[in-house]
Prior knowledge:
Layout: H1 2-15, E1 30-46, E2 54-68, H2 71-74, E3 76-91, E4 97-114, E5 119-136, E6 144-164, E7 167-184, H3 192-196, E8 205-208, E9 216-226, E10 229-244, E11 247-265
Amino acid sequence: MKRYLLLLAGVFALLSPAIAQEDSLRANRFVMRSTLYGVGYTRVLDTYLSPQEYTGIEGRFLHERMRMTTLLDGRVSTQSMIQANVAYTENRSGTGNEISGLVNWTYGLHYHFRVTDRLRILAGALGDANLGFIYNTRNSNNPAQAKAYLNLTASAMAIYKFRIKELPFTVRYQVNVPFMGVMFSPNYQQSYYEIFTLGNHHGVVNFTSVHNQPSMRQLLTLDIPVSRTTLRIGYMGDFQQSKVNDIRCHTYSHAFMIGFVKNFYLIKRKDKLQHRLPF
């Protein structure tokens, strides 16, 4: 298992801000920041806690930062996203509830393919860290399950710009799919007391890939100019699932998102570059 952790650590190191060797006085460093809030519907299953699926409402927060770099002739951007969600769910018979939450942070690089003046296709890889919990209000033994996993994730994005009566709009779609990682999971019917007090932690850290963690996050947004600011509305589809140590888990979420976007340059004379907005 140590070799998996070392491999992931090496990948994260390659994706880290060592790329910040560019000269800030010469670089065309366009920056986009957005903050979105959302509400949606979620379905949660964790057979460590219950064989039943729980459904209910969730609240979600998403903060994103994208920045152009000077790598590969200015065709590479960095992306950092942090999101958090909290859900309150109920089983089908209405006899039990679960409270769950997850914090997710991703950081990585995308290469830009300029298809036309209006359309860009981006492809890259992200480091993906997740930490959360599920608490079942019915259980007396093993009432909670911890969520902790790291992934190397493939990412693709399409950005399309258009105008309506001279007003600029931007549509963006992004999909992230993990293809290698590590995940913490107790063995089936193993208590956390056994793991952390008795030291019986064999097999609780597991290698994951598409065979046992077929998951996907997707985000569709529309940027709308409103006076001197930009309104962003969107849809977040977050589909996390795994089967590790004979424990099946999934969280399927659909959320409507709304917030604001701020675009700016980290150079002078930005007025000459407004027609080259990449995001």
